[in-house]
User: Which sequence fits this backbone?
């Protein structure tokens, strides 16, 4: 049986013959966060004391699930994402800028 698309990608990126169940280490091409879980990741970034994103030009934040925001909590999450993008230089796809999935 042939490889799945995931196995093909992970094999190519890792230089190993990756198959389901294997653990491989690869260099990440793109990091994407959306407004549902992105703020949680940003909060953990702060908890860890991190100050710089390793690959800011390859990191994208998407505000698209609840846009425009219907609630104060979501508005605050969007503000957090915008501030994080400004501070770290990551890419921001703001309201009406596109859909991540």
Assistant:
């Amino acid at each position: 049986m042939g490889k799945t698309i995931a196995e093909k990608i992970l094999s190519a990126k890792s230089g190993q013959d990756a198959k389901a169940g294997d653990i491989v280490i690869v260099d990440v091409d793109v990091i994407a966060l959306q407004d549902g879980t992105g703020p949680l990741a940003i909060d953990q970034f702060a908890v860890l004391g991190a100050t710089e994103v390793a690959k800011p030009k390859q990191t994208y934040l998407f505000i698209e699930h609840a846009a425009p925001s219907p609630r104060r909590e979501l508005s605050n999450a969007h503000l957090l994402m915008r501030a994080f993008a400004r501070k770290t230089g990551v890419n921001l796809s703001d309201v009406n800028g596109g859909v991540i999935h």
Summary: The chain has three helices and three strands. The chain has a mean pLDDT of 94. The first helix runs from residue 5 to 14.
